[in-house]
Sequence to fold (250 residues):
Amino acid sequence: MELRLLIRHIDGLEQFELCPINDVPEGFVTENRRYEIEAFLDGQPLAEQLVLTLNDIPADRIQRGKRRFFLLEVGFYAGDLRVAVLDQHRVVSFVDLVVDADKAKLTRDEYAALVADVARLTSALYRLGAVTLPAAGSVSGDRTLLSTLDLVRTNFDGFERAVSRIANGPTRQLRSETVVVPLQSARRVDSRSLSAALRRGWARTASPSESLAAPRLVEALGGQWIERIGDSHKEERLDTEVAPEIRTVG
Fold:
């Protein structure tokens, strides 16, 4: 009896012969993929009493119209795979197939290195479970966003208490206002306040006594005298009103 096996991806069109001549190209069969195997015995589809096994495990049979396929689902397995046809317990024919490793899959060492990098960035993984993993460490390093957020999270209770204490306590405010006073009573006279007084019309012709009292000022003002001037008064006081955005904390 002549056995003929054809294999293809379950969602593909290209197929290759497994038996009697194995012309499956290297790398076609890889782990974590799904394939269909079509079997013929003496040119006819495999009879119902015949079973196709994959490493001694019977394969699922799929019927599409008059065609019969056997499902090959390769999980995370790489290595030799024996495809055999059994008539009850008698082996009619078999062929060895090589399943290549999926290059996109992480190896155990690569996965351990990945977890070690994550564990080095944040200690939150250790708080979520009782698992401990070896991780490389150093006495100094660049600050990362994850470590900063983890630091804020672990110290948030103290931060909240501090903000609440600030919000509930009085705040010191320094207020400044301008008061119009006679020139002799002003605490500070500068060019800005003099210019403002001249613009507002608070100047008049200086008297002889004023010219004798402040000759340089009268000369600088062109013989004029300023009766009143704006003086800045600063007041410091405690205010119990707190900004709304601070009240919302806590």
In short: The radius of gyration is 46 Å. The first strand starts at residue 3 and ends at 9. Residues 242-250 have pLDDT under 50 and may be disordered.
